[in-house]
Amino acid sequence: MKKIPKYCSWILFIVQIWIYISISIHGYSQQSSEYSYRISPFIRNIENSEYKGANQCWSISQAPDGNIFVANRLGLLEFNGSNWKLYPMESIHPLRSVLAADDGLIYYGHFEDFGFFERDKYGILNQISISDSLISNKDIVNENIWSIHKIGRKIYFRSFAKIYIYDGKTITILPHENNIYSLFERNNKPYVSILPDGLYFIDENNDLQKEPIPDFLDNKRIITTIPLDEEQELIITVFEGIFQKKADVYSPWECEANELLKNFQINKCAVINNNTIAIGTIGKGVIVINTEGKIINSLDKINGLQSNTVLALLTDKSNNLWVGLDKGIDYIELNSPFLYCFDRPGSLGAVYSAILYNGRFYVGTNQGLFYTDWSNQKFEKSIRFEKIEEAQGHVWELKIIGDKLICNYNLGILQIDGNKIKQIGSEGGGYTSTPHPTRDSIFYQGNYTGILQFNKGNDENWKAGNWINDSIIGVRFLQVDQFNNLWVGENFKDAWLFRLNANGNTIINSKKLGVESNFNSRLKIGVFSFENRVIFSNNNMYFTYDYTTESIKPYKWLNDNLGEYKTANYMYRTSEYEYWFAKRDKFGRFYYNGESLVLTKEIKSSSLKGSAVDDRQNIWKINENRYVIGLDNGFMIFDSSSEKSESGDTKLSLKLVNATCYNEKGQIIDLNILNFFSFEIPFKYRNLVFNFAIPGDLPESYSINYKLDSDEWIHNGISKSVTFNYLPWGNHELKMRAVDESLNVLSELSYNVKVLPPWYLKIYALIVYILIASVIVYFIIVFNRFRLKKQKLAYLKKIKSDNTRSIIRMKNQYLKTEVQNKSAELVNYTVLLRKKNEVLIRVKELLGKLIDLKENLDKKSTKQIYNIIDQNLSDKNDWKIFSAHFDGAHSKFLKKIKKDHPLLTPNDLQLCAFLKMNLSSKEIAALLNISSRSVEVKRYRLRKKLNLEHDDNLIEFLMDV
Question: Torsion-angle region of residue 225: left (phi > 0), alpha (psi -120 to 50) or beta?
Fold first, then answer.
């Protein structure tokens, strides 16, 4: 092989580089100069991960209560407006067809089987096969039921070879040797398209009758027919497009839509309303046309469908479209005032500003400035934007000042006049511009580094003037009032007031408006103009400037009129008396009637599809009825002239779709109360969760309000679940209502909820309580009787005891008195006895002396006198009397001491008695008629007999006996 010279290699390399650069530049130029986007209604993708089924969805039907049913490859899918549920089929073959009839049954068609699902009292669908019970296996072998129709009172199940007619009791089989391609209702009769025989209808006797149509239609695969009026009808075919019957003349439909559809394979058709038809195709998605043959919209994977192969179409009761695909289910909001231009390629970006100027529609985004000719677009099927290369980076604001379009963008400011684009200021990026209210030749720009003045030149073009201020970092908001005051809101914190000179080109003085002005400097301070008054948004309310006191004050009138919108961060004036206030999650349109602000429209986050531009919510009025709202991936169009009628023919109802509770272990229990409007809840299940939905409508399209035993409605936000914890027992009235974005009530319902009392408050418990109480009362009575009896006995015993004690006390008192008396008597007697003895001794002594003096006294008489005296001194009666008195006073002292000391003699006992009475020796001597010495001797002897020690006291011993 011949070697290539070195210089040729270099030339080849340079040529390749040049080609690559040329292609890249060309490609970039093509890509960056022109972009095409689809304008379409919102398409909600419902993937198989959400409905828990297979990809392929062959048929869709809606029940009278609004529930959606889908024939899926794995079984029957049910959507109650909140949740999807799959009822699997036993066979591995796909479920091909479904019909939710007005008799409450859900008819299904399967491979070698058809029948219906019937709901039990708990709301669960149970499958019942008709074919198994009414026909033999050979009559359905290898047959697949592709479609089901209810026409009149009969149900028609169609396969490619047979039609099974079910009247509720029996089945009539209508076979045909050729291909039965379709079955549909026409003029209240069942019609079938049989290839290649043509069109037939089934009469009352279940016989096929040929419909007279032109021969060229006989071999056409007719899907259905659509009447337009009494004279005109459309015939939809698979490969040849649409034919028209007008005054009994059949011909191809000459229109824009048919020219397109003849190139596609039509598979399904659905009438949206009296003027709109949806055509489902194989490979080209959904084509929406009107009855005049004009294409309204083309919906495919480019603008949001999950697949271009349409297997099923359904127009629901809200005139929105359900699409069954070979990959998932899509929900298309056709009956909505909102259209969307989503930036799926990623070249448009987040839309910050939009405006209609000189027949062109401009949008400013975070990727530059784009425009399209309005006269050619008008937001119909698609829109083709061209990019203005002069505006690079973020375009923050588009505004018409004078007769020029001013564009504030990342590198400065542009003036646009027709095809002429001119850079009029490059001193930093521009955020916003505002004209002087009284001087047409001046406007001001707030940019990244300050405030710049622009003046109109002699050529009517704007030119950059001098800096008004060059020290503010990021002028986000800018307003000028009629008093030459320039109001500024910084990008991050404070606001400023600059007083300008008469020419408006110099600041005379300035004032910082921060915390001292009641602002929260940590929050952005928005500055706007409302009816020639400067207002400020900050700290969840609006403020205004009081020119009299020269101070910032809360704007009470505006805050009161705005309600919840007083927390809005942005305000837009879209016409003379029309204002929009933008919050993070919604927009509110207010009309000013000279006295108050009236809320006339709300656009909530559900309509914005959660993609509003964060912290730069914006809306612009394009023409009389159309508004554009910037999204973070395109924009949304609101057409106020096509809003849904509040009084539609079909009004879907709010329903309870699930009711659960938590038991003591925290487990979820299904209460099975879906078909009831009055139900009882056990007390242990009073932690309740009710899930509500409007069947057929997606949850994002409405919100729920409720009230329980009160007069005030509670807004439940985006949640469709209402939770009640520890609901008290008793009867409760729960009222629910669904409201749309404009707060119109879509549906209301109420439930009587009875929470049963706890087990300890139920009837049987009360009976047990009564029995227990009765037993307790009985025992209390018995106990009280026993206690009273016991108390009575104790009382009697006490009385007896008291009486006994009284008697004893009285006896003791008596005895004491007796003792005292006897002691007194003893003492008295002893004293008398002592006195007597003393007298007698004295007499004896005197008599002795007398005898000694007179010896002549008669001795016999004297002796007799002595004897009498001695007898009286030693009279035993005296001792007996003394002993009796002594024993009365001293209870049997003598007996006791005699018992303890048996050796004591009577004389010893007599001495003990005298000592017990504490008599002295002299007194004792007088009583015993002995000397005191003798008494002492007796005492001594007594001590010996009593065995007393020397130190023991005899008297004390005797006293203790």
Answer: beta
* Spatial contact of 736 and 692, defined as CB atoms under 8 Å apart: yes
pLDDT, mean of residues 96-118? 95
The letter for the amino acid at 599 is L
SS3 420: strand
Structural element, H or E, at residue 479: strand 475-480
Q: Which of 341, 352, 349 is nearest to 380 (CA)?
A: 341
SS3 annotation, 273-320: ECCEEEEEEECCCEEEEECCCCEEEEECHHHCCCCCEEEEEEECCCCC
Which of 925, 951, 950, 952 has its CA nearest to residue 936? 925
Give the chain's largest Cα–Cα span: 216
What one-character-per-residue DSSP string does 675-723 give? T-SEEEE-GGG-SEEEEEE-TTS-GGG-EEEEEESSSS-EE-TT--EEE
* Cα–Cα distance measured from residue 178 to residue 194, given in angstroms and rounded to the nearest whole number: 7
CB 39 within 8 A of CB 379: yes
Helix/strand/coil percent split, the chain, to 5: 25, 40, 35
Residue 783 CB neighbour total at 10 angstroms: 12
CA angle, 577 as apex, 572 and 580 as ends, to 5°? 25
Which amino acid is present at 407?
C
pLDDT at 830: 65
CA distance 777 to 779: 5
Contacts of 791 (CB under 8 A, 6+ apart): none
Please write the tens of the pLDDT for every residue from 781-796.
988 888 888 888 888 8
Question: Residues 6 or more apart from 882 whose CB is under 8 A from it?
Answer: 826, 829, 830, 833, 913
DSSP state of 138: G
pLDDT score for 305: 94
Structure tokens at 185: 């209702």
List Cα–Cα distances, 423 to 174, 399, 413, in angstroms: 78, 15, 6
- Give how far the C-alpha of residue 718 lies from the chain's centroid of Cα atoms, to the nearest Å: 10
pLDDT at 78 over 90: yes
Are the CB atoms for 679 and 714 separated by under 8 Å? Answer: no
Q: pLDDT band at 692, cuts 50/70/90?
A: confident
Q: Are strands 368-373 and 360-365 parallel, antiparallel or unpaired?
A: antiparallel
Query: Got the DSSP string for 521-581?
Result: TTS--EEEEETTEEEEEETTEEEEEETTTTEEEE-HHHHHHHGGGGG-SEEEEEETTEEEE
CA 488, CA 670: separation in Å to the nearest integer? 59
The residues, ordered by sequence, that sit 6+ positions from 545 with a Cβ below 8 Å of its Cβ are 487, 497, 533, 534, 551, 552, 553
pLDDT at 11: 40
pLDDT in tens, 401-422: 999 999 999 999 999 988 889 9
As a whole number, mean pLDDT of residues 117-145 equals: 91
Q: At what angle do helices 932-945 and 906-916 cross, to 10 degrees?
A: 100
Calculate the alpha carbon distances from 29 to 26, 117, 420, 465 in Å: 5, 60, 20, 35
Q: How far is CA 503 from the centre of its chain?
A: 59
Beta pairing partners, 541 = 538
User: How many alpha carbons fall within 13 Å on the CB side of residue 775?
Assistant: 5
Q: How far apart are CA 391 and CA 382, in angstroms?
A: 24
The mean pLDDT value for 148-161 works out to 96
Residue 199's DSSP bridge partners are 193
Residue 688: pLDDT band (50, 70, 90) is: confident
Residue scoring higher pLDDT (830 or 264) = 264
Query: What whole-number distance in Å separates Cα of residue 434 and Cα of residue 211?
Result: 72
- Using H for helix, E for strand and C for coil, what is the string for 640-654? HHHCCCCCCCCCCCC
Residue 737 DSSP code? E
Question: How far apart are alpha carbons 95 and 109 in whole angstroms?
Answer: 6
